Amino acid sequence: MSHAHADEHYLQAKGFYNWFFSVDHKRIGLMYLLAILFFFLVAGFSAILVRTELLFPGHTIVDARGYNVLFTLHGAIMVFLFIVPGIPATLGNFLLPLMIGAKDVAFPRLNLLSFWIYLLGVVCVLYALVGTPWKDWLDTGWTLYAPYSVQSSTGVIPITLGVFILGFSSILTGLNFTVTIHRLRAPGMTWHRLPLFCWAIYSASLIQILATPVVGITLLLLIMERIFGIGFFTPALGGDPILFENMFWFYSHPVVYIMILPAMGVVAEILPVFSKKPIFGYRAIAYSSLAIALVSFFVWGHHLFVSGMSYWSRWVFSLLTFAVAIPTAIKVFNWISTLYKGSIRLDSPMLYACAFIFLFTIAGLTGIPLATLATDVHLHDSYFVVAHFHYTMQGGTVIGLLAGLHFWYPKIFGKMYNELASKVGFWMLFIGFNMTFMPQFLLGYFGMPRRYYDYLQEYADLHFMSSIGAYLNGLAYLFIFGNLIYGLFKGKAAAKNPYESLSLEWTVPSPPPLTNFDEVPTVEDWTYGYASEQNA
Amino acid sequence: MSAPGTFFHAHEEDPVEAYQNFKFGMWMFLATEVLLFGGLFAAYFIFKYRYHELFVKGSSHLDWRMGSLNTLVLLISSYTMAMAVDAAQRSENQKLIRNLLLTLLFAATFLVVKGFEWIPKFNHGIYPGTDIYFSIYFLTTGLHLLHVLIGMFFIGLLAVRANKGRYNSENFGGVEVGGLYWHLVDIIWIFLFPLLYLVGSV
Amino acid sequence: MSEHKMGHLQEPSTYLRILIYLFVLTIVTVAASKVHFGWEFLNVIVALVIAAFKASLVIRFFMHGKYENGETWAFIVYPIVLLVTLVGFLFLDYGFRPKDKYVVTPVAFDDQAHGEHGSSHNSTETHGEPTNDHAAAETPAETHGDSSDVANAEPAGESHAEAPAEAAANALPGDAAKGLEKAKILCIACHKVDGAGNELPGAPPFAETMANPEKTPEYLRKWLKNPAEVKPGTIMPNLGLSDSDIENLIAYLATIKN
Amino acid sequence: MPIDVSGISEIGTRVDQVQMALIWLMAFCFIACNAVLIYFMLRYRRKSANQPTADLRGSHFIETVWTLIPTIVVIIIFFYGINVWSDMRTPPEDSYQINVKARQWSWSFEYPDGRVEATEMVVPVDTPIKLNMVSEDVLHSFFLPHFRVKEDVVPSQYTYLWFEAKKTGDYHIFCTEYCGKDHSAMLGNLKVVDEEAWQRWLRNEPEPGQAPLSPEQRGEKLWEKWGCKGCHSTDGSVVLGPSFKGIYGKEEHFESGESLVIDDNYIRESIYSPQAKIVKGFTNQLMPSFQGQLKEDDISDVIAFIKSLQ
User: Which chains touch C (3 or more CB pairs under 8 A)?
Assistant: First the structure.
């Protein structure tokens, strides 16, 4: 192989070795992106099958067990393989060093190791889900609640092992990013000049480091329960299934902030650029990210409001859950204020960012009745919850990921996608998504329990509408990704900084050279000095 | 295969920077380790609270003298490890190798004592799953044992590299970070010992 | 400059001093555990406080923690905060749950009762129905006494059980061979026994039943005694079995694995 | 569909009041935020490349205000919710108690007099009912959507739930915690009846205007309940025991060599001591005695049922 030039960009290297053994954060980020988008489509397809089954009451395409397998498949792949690595491992990996003016992450080899471990975890999870004869496909739901998961004859051990391994990948990625942000910031890039995306990734990384080990040990205990009958979760042996719920949600609640915080970060990057205005209340947004990360550990109990936990536990957890609402509200107000007196370009990244705010307000507000004990008892484990977390996960994280992908697409690939097509895709998604999940709020309020294969005739209309919405939703994704892929081959070459951003990643060529910066840049001012009038 | 940016051709870092990052990263990793054991500690406290009698009865099957002996052995190994780091900082290579080997020796002693505790238990038909106390006993000490083994592997690696003269006052990050890990293993044991061995001996 | 960046030197005598402190504290821990503090959990708290102090010595001196900056200390302190929170909130839950509402009280492993014969999952369900708020937990002594008697009577000299399931079978009081005989007369009508017999709908293969960890010997005892009581509407009839028949059948069932 | 449940129970009505208050609050916040968002998007749309933008980096005053307001609002909601919920979790002392057992995938209800019912729970109106619940296998959750109450049914401890119906009628019971294959089939029915019907139900009398179950029907129920159908078919096919079809009044030969016309006495004897006279060819001696389990009344119902199968 020839010696590469220093200014060779990172996409130029070809061949398996150059990618699979690459320690370059950009290539690793891109490999992650490919992997998670693949799993997004797989899990999305199983969601379509789930909605098809629910099109009409009774048997539509699969039997009860088949349905349980399908929603388990959807949940497990979406959560463990797509959304947890989600934005941090893809956009975070790609952009973090560029944004803080570093040549790479702190531990490039560890970064590659995380990716390999991720792939190993993928193998285990897929084995449990689809690698065995049909009768052994996992049907416990992604939450793996004991004692059902202790008794189930399906692949609980492989998936548990897989999630344990994925946990390692997640911990190592989080650790890598945290050290990177602490130690590799370019001269002049103080904490208070750090782009908000980095703050968000930092907060998410803290959760990855501190929450993941607890689910690791919990899942290990589940394996031990199945092998040795250690009795922690098996009632007949004196164990307590509610302990599993407690320990599981100690991780799995903070994990939703691993998913949503980076998406919030993406939005906070896009809004100032497309409004040509400084972000409003920089410190409030930065610190509220951190506050959400730190407080998120203390609210897991709201998943157990009807589980049989003690009266006072429910009381305290309800109060603490409300505490998370406040930093979230602050963020929303700040984002909206950023637009005030701006000069707004409604390109597709900006459309996605605004849609994020729109959908996220729904997601956040519908969290209030779920935090309020009186109403949560009724709404718990109903379709209301399903709709609520799909508004946060799809309306929040996925829309945020798409916003980021469209925004940084020229930087990542050096090409432009078709703007008109991406807007069409956006509207399809926006309408399809709301049509899918809006009826589910009603269903839930009317008492429709979740994870039901069959339902009473009285719920049929709303289910039908939701399923039709799901098809539009699915089509929209095909259209959007089709457009992005088309752009890779036929798109125009992108300029270095098409959106006139002031952030560091736009000061390097598109696509960026392998070593990012020839000279480590010195940062003079904060990132958001966009205003044309200086009235400070 | 000399493509830049691949596994064997990562860009060079400033050694001081690399040392700082390495150490900071290790501290963070220790944080995850604490929480990994934390899940087990949480389970311990809950079941201890619910089944106090069962725990007292269970821990009466353990020999607190063995536990104390192992505590002392691990403490000494921690000391020798600290001395190894000190030797590396002072570029005293012979002393470094000697201390690393001593640490390994004490770690091995720990394993032997552990073996003398575990094997008779198996012979008495006590396994994880016998009752909740013994489940916790075997899981915590087992996970700790796993960490001892991993620690021993890395200390062995350090000894081999020290033997090649890799470490000196300018470059001792590896020894120090290995030391951090080993001390954590010690700290975990400091908590496990009274909780498992001494709760029932009143 | 590089000296400052590359860590700190401590006097070697400091390490020795700390080691001695740690030794002394270990002795204090053991001594403290021999003292009655009146309340059983106070002993645990004292032990934890001493352990925390020992750990802080290791962190500060052996791990050079005292030279680390605030950023590192944040990562030392916050995990501990989280751990305390986790345990604290769990106690908020378990501490306020009505204790008389638990279904099962597990029985501790007992050396005397089990002799050299493997262990058993000594769970004894105390089914106190919560009629009118009183889920009375009966003491599980009765059943427990039973099984241990028979366990002692079992011939010694079998090799030690490898797997817990096998161990459980060994500790069961019944005679598996007699159980099999009985099963060939009774159960065979609806279940396959030793590969022979019918397999009626609603009569699951024994292997499937035994793979379910919920189906403990205790459960099977109740079930065989009167299936309709455990599961109203079940197709399985009350076979009017004697207690010894039931024990033999359970012993036989325990030998069945996938 | 449980949309408007006002009047069905006091707690449910109060829960819906909280819910309505929250819906209005949510609607207000949602519309306020997004109206401003959309207004800004349109109002400040870039019309020229050098459209001036303000250097607004934040405002301590306004940020403090919009931190404090949500804080106060959520604290108010919290206590409002706690107030209702606390009553929801505090059953009156004199509640009528029913034990609920959940298993994959059915409910059973045990009344204080020992009577056990499956699937349908009958309760009197205007009486607080407390359910003491336990699961026999995995997690389940007992949900009464019309009453806005729900509580998990777990295998490790007894949980409880209480409600008081103010209106008679039939209401859904759902299982809302995923419990395996037929989770969605784990439905039940709550039948709230007036005092008169309740007393009748307690005495096991049929409702007026509805024919009581005939002895044959009762017999058939017993045949299902006690597992007779496992061995004795009703269509003439031989499973393990003789089929019931056409057996009554027929002369049967026994293993002992005797023969007899099957009559009431024979059936009664066969139920209480099955091995006394075994029909030729059925040597497996499987049938257990039902002495002490089937009462005399039950026996005559079974006889009537067998008689009806000609």
Answer: A, B, D
**Count of domains observed in chain D:** 3
- The residue of chain C nearest to residue A182, with distances taken between CA atoms, is C71
Question: Which residues of chain B neighbour C124 with C-beta distances below 8 Å?
Answer: none
- DSSP class of residue A139? -
**Cα separation, B85 vs B79, whole angstroms:** 10
Tell me which of B29, B35, B46 to substitute to probe the interface with A (most A C-beta atoms closer than 10 Å). Answer: B35
Helix axes D60-88 and A348-371, enclosed angle (nearest 10): 40
In a domain, B42, yes or no: yes
- Nearest 5°: phi and psi at A71? -75, -25
Give the side-chain half-sphere CA count within 13 A for A418. Answer: 14
Q: Which two tokens stand for residue C181?
A: 């005989």
Q: Is residue A536 part of a domain?
A: no
ipTM: 0.86
| CB proximity C234 to B under 8 Å | no
User: Any residues with CB less than 8 A from the CB of D154 and at least 6 apart, and which?
Assistant: A235, A241, A242, A307, A308, D134, D135, D139
The span from the CA of A10 to the CA of A506, in Å, is 15
Amino acid code (one letter) for C234:
T
Amino acid at D61: F
**Do C and D share at least 3 CB pairs under 8 Å?**
yes
Tell me how far apart the alpha carbons of residues A253 and B40 are, in angstroms, rounded to a whole number.
Answer: 19
- For residue A223, the chain B residue with the least C-alpha distance is B139
Phi, psi of C104 (to 5 degrees): -125, 140
- Within 8 A of D145 by CB-CB distance, chain A residues are 378, 446-447
Q: Chain-centre distance of CA A486, in angstroms?
A: 25
Given this model, what pLDDT does residue C150 score? 34
- What CATH number corresponds to the domain at position A254? 1.20.210.10
pLDDT averaged per 10 residues in sequence order, chain B, 202 residues: 65 82 94 94 92 87 91 96 94 94 96 93 85 92 96 96 91 93 96 88 50
Residue A140, domain extent: 28-507
- Number of domains within chain A: 1
Select from C96, C125, C212 the Cβ nearest to the Cβ of A310.
Answer: C96
pLDDT in tens, A254-283: 999 999 999 999 999 999 999 999 999 999
* Phi/psi of residue D250, nearest 5 degrees: -95, 150
**pLDDT value at A328 more than 80:** yes
The neighbour count for residue B112, using CB atoms within 10 Å, is 11
B101 interface with C at CB cutoff 8 Å: no
Looking at residue C184, what is its pLDDT? Answer: 74
In a domain, B171, yes or no: yes
- The position carrying tokens 């935020």 is D33
* CATH number of residue B139's parent domain: 1.20.120.80
Residues 79-108 of D with CB under 8 A from C: 97, 99, 103, 108
Examine the domain organization and report whether D118 and D186 are in the same domain. Answer: yes
**What's the whole-number average pLDDT of chain D?**
88
Write the pLDDT tens digit of every residue in D190-226.
999 999 999 988 887 776 666 677 888 888 877 776 6
Domain total of chain B: 1
- Assess if residue A324 is contained within a domain: yes
Q: Which of A144, A172, A148 is nearest to A160 (CA)?
A: A144
Tell me, yes or no, whether D135 and D83 share the same domain: no
Burial of A214 (0-12, 13-18, 19+ CB in 10 A): buried
Q: How many CA atoms lie within 13 A of C136 on its CB side?
A: 4
Q: What is the pLDDT of residue A411?
A: 95
Confidence of residue A449 (pLDDT cuts 50, 70, 90): very high
Residue B155 lies in a domain: yes
Q: What is the pTM of this model?
A: 0.83
Does residue D196 sit in the same domain as residue D153? yes
pLDDT beneath 70, residues of chain C: 1-6, 111-171, 185, 189, 196-202, 228, 232-235, 240, 257-258
